């Protein structure tokens, strides 16, 4: 597949991600950076709500049904606006088009810097996308990591069944199992078949999502967050965008090594949603009650959108904006207490405490939370090394990745320590760093606080750039101011010197160059280690020859065929790439039934064990995929699937195709 075709898929996914939320936000009165940055979160909330409704009514998930659903939402909003504000009348505080929720002055400031904001997003997107694309090599290459297998097959399931609901599971077993399917539902809307083959449609659409989420969507969200935190300092929003791609924690690690598309989507949504919450928490009386009510409702919908993408995103959002919410609440309580409304304060405090205790109790009783907090993971490193690793960004190498950016972050910390209104950002950043250290550190009771992220430090590290980008922007402005003062003192009399913003921009360019494009070689290498069969570090599932076999599977096997084989060595890609069901469609074993487990353990006894053929016939298994490559050859092999290895295929099997060390055979022994 050519990259020009992939660019069309990227554009399509961007439309899927931005259009619903942008339309809704503009109808509600939001404008500019805030509307763009928060749009993806509202889009995800829309998809999460539409999917179960369409599934319950028997309507297949697709571009037409989703488009009609969005049209209905728009009509409801338009009707609601007319009911609230009848024709010919206007509420005194009703939102007007030229005025943003940030306030008129902030809008004027952002408009003045709109050109630079667009330039920052464009350049930042190129800096982010190029290493990702180079590492992928082929735009339709399958991401060969553990989680990717499950997610690609999830997209294939939605495309096959037309069901994208979050409460039916991804493999249609009839169980009411919750799983966040928003990312899968969006990728399923991308018509990869129009620009490539059916075999590459899903993998290319998934890769397009990585390119979009890790570039323009991420950077616009950071810009919105920076603008919300500093509404009168638009240069900070621009600089936050400019350095947003400097950190390796996100998107590189999440979309390559970890292959966590839904989790990555939720992280990408956090800054835009946080911008809404910061705007709400900082709204002043002149905003007006109706506008504040709309803003509150929109912020809650954005919260739902983040949570529907992945549950951990809600906690991540709380980590980012929680300190500001607490600060605002403390100030409000103190003001009410000093105003003599002490009984109301005590009553409200009791209600909040009761709700918190009840909510926590209910959440902790859920099966999902039990699984999360009981998940065991070995310690990775001590507390001090974790803190240093995060602050200096040594995630991809032992050496600091972006020294100048790290210095700017620390300068930003020093600057904001003296800022009473912005100090909460330091608490947010500090909380992320502490949680990362707890997750990576020794097993202690406090480590349980990171259970919502499966006690995986890399998942939490992805939140760090959200606040660090803003801190770095503040730091670069401070460094630019210092450079401007020095230049003015040393400039000849009558000469004009560049301002602080110009010097800050120069420093960002210097940071980009001195870090070789914000660690571009390292980021490209990380993606190659997850995509390129010759460079994959954690076990290759499909070689180049085997990828070609999977792409030809539709033409090799009859419709309705079912393939059995070790999912670790590539069999699980048969569904997403070859359009053919696999007995074991994922690498995990938690969802296996009795038949799957028995074949996994005893299939090689097919000649002597009649139970094997019984389960083969029960599941409709027609083919066996065998790969002779082992761990010494760099292949990924499941040691807990003894029945799928060392199978005697000299009798009872017929060879269909051979690709490298892999052989596809029909199962004749049970005929």
From TrEMBL:
Keywords: Membrane, Transmembrane, Transmembrane helix. It comes from the Bacteria. The chain crosses the membrane at residues 53-79, 116-134, 211-230, 237-258, 264-281, 293-309, 315-333, 345-364, 398-417, 424-442, 462-483, 495-518. InterPro entries: DUF6541. This is 4-amino-4-deoxy-L-arabinose transferase-like glycosyltransferase. It comes from Sanguibacter antarcticus.
